[in-house]
Here is the input.
Amino acid sequence: MLKLAWRNLIHERTRLIISVGGVALAVLLIVVMNGIFAGGEKQATTYIKNQPAPLWVMQAGVENIHMASSILPADAVERVRSVPGVETAVGILYTGGGVEVGDTLVPSYLFGVDPDASFGGPWSLTKGTAAPAANEIVVDQAFAQRYRLALGDTVSVMGHDLVIAGLSKGTFGIAVNLTFVNKEALAQTLGVPSQSASYILVKPVSGTNLQNLADELRTALPQANVMTQTDFIASERDLIRQTGVDVIRAMSTVAYVIGLLVIGLTIYTATLERSREYGVLKAIGAKNPQLVRVVFTQAFAAAGLGYLLGVGLAYGTSVVVSRLFPDILILINPPQLLREVPALAFITALAALLPVGRVARLDPLVAFRA
Amino acid sequence: MNTPYILEMRQVSKTYGSGHTAVKAVDGVDLLIKPEEIVLVMGPSGSGKTTLLSMAGLLLRPTEGKIWLNGQETTPLTERQLPALRLRSVGFVFQAYNLLGALTARENVGLVMHMAGRNGRSARTRAAELLTMLGLEHRLNHLPADLSGGEKQRVALARALANDPPLILADEPTGNLDSKIGREVMELLCCGLGRDQGRAIVIVTHDHRLRDIADRVLWLEDGRLSDDHRGNLESMASHQIGETTR
Here is the structure.
């Protein structure tokens, strides 16, 4: 009977293409949407991940960079440096803002970095310097490419003209646009003391117990929040998920409804067209469960093929999109692909119910109609 | 129950509808079919032939009366039990062949054996043997759409014989075939493979030319069955000849 299901499925090529194609499009939509979101998550945490700082100090009550504002007391960096076990402490200033390119204002995360610090700035450069002087800025190469900018060109930030002194890599995406300016200059623009920091990136002495050091830092700076790099990344990821989860859920629901309708309609039409054959099988001696299995097998085979095609298309799309739009990162991970399987199986079973009901009610006497 | 009959229908009636709209399609029929017997049931359109055949094939329950198939009383059987009995005890040959369009000739025949629990390889081998005996060795892997009407009906015949049922029920088996091909198919059914192993055959037809291959010819009219009614048959035959001449 399984062979019959498979043969019925492939016998009508056009219907098979519509059925498999419809499911594939639904899967493609779901996987790409989730992939864009996962890519956005990765991009949003990229700054924290790429700094060699296992501990982060920030204003009390702050647990993120994204959608957050943090300012620490002017002496905070020095107090952190004085805590035993701290090898390096780098203060950075951070504010959300925009980079003006001509008449266009591009939303951006502005990081004020100390040119003399060993980290805190861009971690990967393609051209120029990673340590901007007072009238300089470092932007991402993909950002520069999109807005036809090059080293030496001028952009404006908060009313100040800045010359592009460096091109960074991996700092531009749909969720983030990281730009780096001189910390002292940014402090002046923001009207805060030059020693101030939004976040302090802490590198401990090798072999230091992180939790103990975090406790020491909390004692030294009772008004501050101290987080490990891992917790800070997780917190940032949670925030991104919270902001996007409704959109993803809505898009996935739409995609699944499309899949449901496509599978349902094609299998129902196929069952209708073959209802006489099912009736004949009943007359000959097939039991309802056997015929129900045939219909379910057809539906699941179509959905399975559609799923595989959809995943393949999603991988292809991620490659093409990353070449055409370097800021869009579509991150497809196998566990996420597997998570879609139960939902698709449920939808397929649901879609097969209508044709199954039809087959179950078929009158075998249809075989005698000429 | 020990019985000399493959099929035994006693006082079987079938009424459609109820009250003043009730129509009695089959009315108190007694039909006894012995092994190796070939019985032709003839009668005008709407006389109840298909209803009678459907009840004989356990596709339709009688309103009254009892049916025994191969010695087993079928009335107490549930709807779930009937398909298995049909599968092993009855082979159907339909006017419209009713082959599965997506399966090859061999697969169409093999499927019913597979449904009856025979394993795939054994079913394939047996299907090929049957089709070869019916002269279709060159058509084993062809889809029904690629076969002629006569070839399709031979595949349908092989399918009916696949599980070695004791009873074959044929509904207008030559209805869609020209006379020469129809004759060939009927000879295969009634004189060749079909009659092996004491199998009985009941054929419902309008085709009076099949009378000479039958052991018995019955006449069904207004739901009532009677023995060979020469006058009716002659009248039917002349009507058919008249149609052909026109």
